[in-house]
Specification:
The complex is a heterodimer of chains A (147) and B (143). Chain A is mainly α and 147 residues long. Chain A has eight helices and no strands. Chain B has helices at 5-18, 22-36, 55-73, 78-93, 98-114, 121-138. Chain B has six helices and no strands. Helix content of chain B is 69%, strand content 0%. Chain B is mainly alpha-helical and 143 residues long. The chains are: A mainly alpha (147), B mainly alpha (143). Chains A and B meet through α2, α3, α7 and α8 of A and α2, α5 and α6 of B.
């Protein structure tokens, strides 16, 4: 069972309140596909991913980025119960999509960087610490079907 | 994942841009590493003060950033450039190479925050590759 202190709860609320899912999602997914190009293997149907410009302008990438952040919103609203909240998503990613779980860590790192860019100085080391804990918990929940 | 001509040019240009804030970046990245990944503190247990703003942290961060700047200058031959440092890390410091990735991540988060407009995805991928190559060369002498 993951435990969240009051300080962690409020840090996450504060960060989440400053983010726009429609902006952050596409940016994070775009960076994933650019910085770690082997992740493109999971998006064969997305069309042109041949360059950074193509990826950043690709409407399917943008739309899927929003989907991913929408799912993260569920985690943020159910911090005490992320594993259960993500049970179906875990099944989808593990059993159907067969995503290598290391990719969750890569996307988490891209999200951290995009959030850092957005928040600037207010993304203090303590906030980064709490954010990365959330990322680790989400990644573990998504990978749970593998074990 | 070796560095292309483009990577080399992107890294050199970006590093030139951020050089004036090297001390701040180093201190911030190193401090974040110690805060967000507390297990990294084990390598510095001989310091009196491990808090992010401390004199020891700032001083050591300068050493690290100096070494990275040197590596950027000698980017065309990183193995040669890092040979002595690799020897030091392998035989004396014995830092688990997994930690190089951790520090790299925190350097990237820091430069992203301080240079949001310049840290484009293209710069991100080249810098990530450079730091990964640097880490690989640093671990070269380990076994």
């Amino acid at each position: 069972m993951v435990e969240w202190s009051d300080a962690e709860h409020s840090a996450i609320s504060e960060v989440w309140g400053k983010l726009h899912i429609d902006e952050i999602g596409p940016q994070a997914l775009g960076r994933l596909l650019i910085v770690y190009p082997w992740t493109q293997r999971y998006f064969g149907s997305f069309g042109d991913l041949s360059s950074a410009a193509a990826i950043l302008g690709n409407p399917k990438v943008s739309s899927h980025g929003k989907v991913v952040l929408g799912a993260l919103d569920k985690a943020v609203k159910n911090l005490e119960n992320i594993k259960a909240t993500y049970s179906n998503l875990s099944q989808l990613h593990c059993d159907k999509l067969n995503v290598d779980p290391d990719n969750f860590r890569l996307l988490a790192d891209c999200l951290t960087i995009v959030v850092g860019i957005k928040l600037g100085a207010s993304f203090s080391p303590q906030v980064q610490c709490t954010w990365q804990k959330l990322m680790a918990v989400v990644a573990a929940a998504l990978s749970s079907r593998y074990f | 994942m070796s560095l292309t001509v483009q990577d080399i040019s992107v890294v050199k240009a970006f590093w030139a841009k951020i050089a004036s804030r090297s001390d701040d970046i180093g201190a911030e990245a190193f401090g974040r590493m110690l805060t967000v990944y507390p297990q990294t503190k084990t390598y510095f247990s001989h310091w009196a003060d491990l808090s992010p703003g401390s004199a020891s942290v700032k001083k050591h961060a300068k050493v690290i950033m100096g070494a990275i700047a040197d590596a950027v200058a000698k980017i065309e031959d990183l193995p040669a450039a890092l040979s002595q440092l690799s020897e030091l890390h392998a035989s004396k410091l014995r830092v688990d190479p997994a930690n190089f990735k951790i520090l790299a991540h925190n350097i990237i988060v820091t430069v992203a925050m301080l240079f949001p407009a310049d840290f484009t995805p293209e710069v991100h991928v080249s810098l990530d590759k450079f730091l990964q190559n640097l880490a690989w060369c640093l671990a070269e002498r380990y076994r």
